[in-house]
Write a structure and sequence with these properties.
Bound molecules: glyoxylic acid
Order of helices and strands: EHEHEHEHEHHEHEHEHEHEHEHH
Radius of gyration: 22 Å
CATH topology of the largest domain: Rossmann fold
Structural class: alpha/beta
Number of strands: 11
């Protein structure tokens, strides 16, 4: 497979165009050209420290960032000219959206385009945990496989089992849509039953909710104690939804059978105990990591920036921004420098 075609990192200045945009990661050359045609670019390839990011964003009208960039009040204060923060992610818990809205800064994310990729990865992890693929691969790679045996590395079949999904958004629904292919029934928390009932009755729990104050550590010791001893927990949403220490404890105590994680509380650090457990599948935050999806995410972020800096409404504002936009149409002052010029 070909990798994305990336232009060499270079700061390009186009004095004739006033709007300046900081892009905190390398982006495909074709998309870079589209952005470059509309504004002045400051491109960065490697992660910036909060101090470096604050310094680089000064004087910028647009910021295209990723989920590991923290966009807080200090950063927003350092960038009074900022009109849009375009996150290359569907989740935006890295951004203080209220603070941005209060300063008239539009925040956009990249919904829809990554739904299928993330749902596919959720199933990949679920299947890996149920059929012990990580463990099996480790046995083969270290030359410890003795050959086929009738009782060797038996896993769990999915047919006839209940998949409990926490999170009724696009990704949760896309995960559910694939369940009939594996003969699983699907129940959604809150829609079909309470979270507690879902935990008690499900054979697999898939976390597909965003990280919010009310979902932080939603899966704690108490929740894990409610789950079936045979249950598998899959998390492709955000690490802090699961209390990682509690998860390690529950797995050690055999309160649940297995876990499959793509996200962690302190990425890239993973709970030491989980690293040593055979019944845990660990992926390095790959939910949206396909060439097709990452290209579409970057393209959407760039389009949002071009729209806003051209005085048109963003394509995919996050809800807080959408509220601010609505408020602005009622005459409240949330716009800055014509950012919402079409209204
Ligand atoms: C990835 O985790 C995303 O939120 O897009």
């Amino acid at each position: 497979m070909q990798s994305l075609r990336l232009l060499p990192v270079a700061r390009t200045l186009r004095a004739s165009l006033p709007s300046s945009v900081l892009v905190t990661r390398r982006i495909p050359s074709s998309i870079q050209e589209k952005l470059q045609a509309a504004c002045e670019l400051d491109l960065e390839a490697s992660p910036l420290s909060p101090e470096e990011l604050r310094e680089r964003v000064r004087g910028k009208a647009g910021l295209i960032c990723v989920l590991t960039d923290r966009i807080d009040e200090a950063l927003l204060d350092a960038a009074p000219d900022l009109r849009i923060v375009a996150n290359i992610a569907v989740g935006y818990d890295n951004i203080d959206v209220r603070a941005a809205a209060g300063r008239g800064v539009v925040v956009t994310n990249t919904p829809d385009v990554l739904t299928e990729a993330t749902a596919e990865l959720t199933w990949a992890l679920l299947l890996s945990a149920a059929r012990r693929l990580g463990e099996g691969e480790r046995v083969v790679r270290r030359g410890a496989w003795k050959g086929w045996a009738i009782d060797f590395m038996l896993g769990t079949e999915l047919r006839g089992k209940q998949l409990g999904i926490i999170g009724r958004g696009r990704i949760g629904r896309a995960v559910a849509a694939k369940a009939p292919a594996f003969g699983m029934t699907v129940k959604f928390a809150k829609e079909d039953m309470s979270v507690d009932e879902l935990l008690v009755s499900s054979d697999v729990i898939s976390i597909n909710t965003s990280l919010r104050p009310d979902t932080r550590h939603l899966i704690d010791r108490r929740a894990l104690m409610r789950m079936k001893r045979s249950a598998i927990l899959v998390n492709t949403a955000r690490g802090p939804v699961v209390d990682e220490e509690a998860l390690a404890w529950a797995l050690k105590e055999r309160l649940i059978a297995a876990a499959a994680l793509d996200v962690y509380e302190r990425e890239p650090v993973v709970q030491e105990e989980l690293l040593a457990m055979e019944n845990v599948v660990l992926a390095p935050h790959l939910g949206s990591a396909t060439r097709e999806t990452r290209t579409a995410m970057i393209d959407l972020a760039v389009s949002n920036v071009i729209e806003v800096l051209s005085g048109r409404p963003p394509l995919t504002p996050v809800p807080a921004t959408a509220t601010a936009l609505r408020a602005s149409t009622r005459g409240k002052e949330v716009r800055k420098n014509g950012a919402f010029g079409s209204e």
